[in-house]
Amino acid sequence: MALKSLCSLPAWQSRKLTPQIRHESEYYCVDRCGHNAVCVKDELLIWGGYNDKEGSTYCDCSSLWVYNLDLDVWMHYKVAGRVPEKRSGACSALVWPYWYIFCGHTMGGNVNDMHRLDLINLTWERVRLKEPNISPRDKAAAWVYRNRIYCFGGFGIAPYSYLWDKSADVFSEEAWAERGWNDQLLYFDTEKCEWVRVSCKGPKPKERAAHSAVCINDTVYLFGGRHQTGRLNDLHLLDLETHTWSGRISCKGGEPTGRSWHTMSQLSKTDLLLFGGFDNNRQPLDDAWKLDILSLQWTLLVSHTGLPRLWHTACVSIQGDVLIFGGCTTNILEHESPMITSDKVLVFRAQPFSLERLCLHTLAKHRDRTINQWNALSKPHQEWLFLKSSSADEFQPPFYKNCAVSVVGPHLTQLAVLSEKEAEVINRSR
After folding, report:
1. Which of 218, 224, 371, 416 is in Cβ range 3.0-4.6 Å of 361 for a Cys bridge?
2. Quick one: fold of 9-348?
3. Above 70 in pLDDT, residue 418?
4. 355-365 and 379-394 are packed helices; what angle lies between their axes, rounded to 10 degrees?
C-alpha cells in the first residue's frame, strides 16, 4: 500500500487552503467537465474545466483540488507562479516532477500555449516554446513515451500557418464554422522545449476530436471520437518504436457504440476500461467495456451503471484504482436545458483490495478500540493511520457528502470511506 502522500511535501503543507467560510465550495471540489486530472501515487489532482453554475463558467485555475480515496477527503491548495488562463478541453501529461497543461479552449477561443506545474514546490511556469508551434486546438489526446509528450488530433482553427505538412496531415473544416478536425501526430520534446511533427507509416486514423488514447509499453490504443457529424467506434494501434499505425482493428466480441467525450484507461496489465461518452443520438452514455489487449476482444462489463458521464476524466492510482471524476450527465449540446455536471468520484477495480489495505482501513474504522495498539505496527503503517485519523478530525464541513462511488470491483464499504447513508446519518445527528 502506498503510504507516502504528495501532500506531505513542505510546499504543499504551506499552501493548503483553510476554509474561510463554512460553505460547501470550500470543502469539496465543485462539479465540472472538460477539466484535467492526474494521479500521483494515491492523490487525484483536479484542475480547470467549466460548469453551468452561472452560465458556462470556467472554473478557478489559481488553485488545485486533490482527492485521496483512502483518506476520503478533498484538499484545496493555492498554487504559485504564472497560472494558466482558465480553459476546458486542454491536454495534460505528467513528466515528473512536472504536470504539463497545453492547448484547450478559453474565453478567447482555442489556444496553443503550454504551462507546467512543478509538483515539488507547487509553482506554475509558462513553457517557452520554439517555433514552429502546434496549432491551437482542444479535445486532442495526449500520452507520454520516453519523456516525450505525444498529441494526436483535436478540434481547432485552420493549422496551415503552424507546424503542419499539407502533403500528409489532414484538416477537415466544420461546415458552419472556421474550425475543424485534424489527424496530426506530434510530440513535444521536454528537453529541447519544441514540438516535432511525426512522419507516420501505415493507414492513419481519420481526423477526430474528443477521442481517447492509452499508452502501454510501446503501443498506443486509440478509440472513437467525433469526425464531422459522426461519433466513431474504431480502434487503432500505434507502434511508438516505428510510428506505424495499424489501420482499423477488427476486434472480437460485440463492439461499443460510436462515441466521443469518453475515457479509456488501463484497468489491469492486459485490460483497458472504456467508460461513458456521448453517442450519435446525442445521449450521454453510462456503459462500461473491457478490452483485452492480448486477444483484442471487447467485453461488456455493465450495460447501464445509472451514472451517465461525458467529458469526464479517468486516472489510475498506484493501487490500481481507476478514478473517474466529474463530467456532464446530460445532453451537453442541448442549450435550452441546463447542463448538469458531477462532483462524484467513480471507482473501478479489476482486483480485490489488498489484505494490507483492508487491515489498515479496519483499524481506522475502529480507531477508538485499536489506537492504543497502533504503536506495535511498523512506522509507515502508524504514519498512515494517524494521517487518516487527523484528516478526518480536521475535515469538518457544514454537512457531509459521499465523495466516491463503487461501480465495478469490490465495494467501498470494505474501506473506511463514507457512504451516502453514513453521510445522511451524520448530517441528521448534527
Report:
1. 416
2. Neuraminidase (2.120.10)
3. yes
4. 50
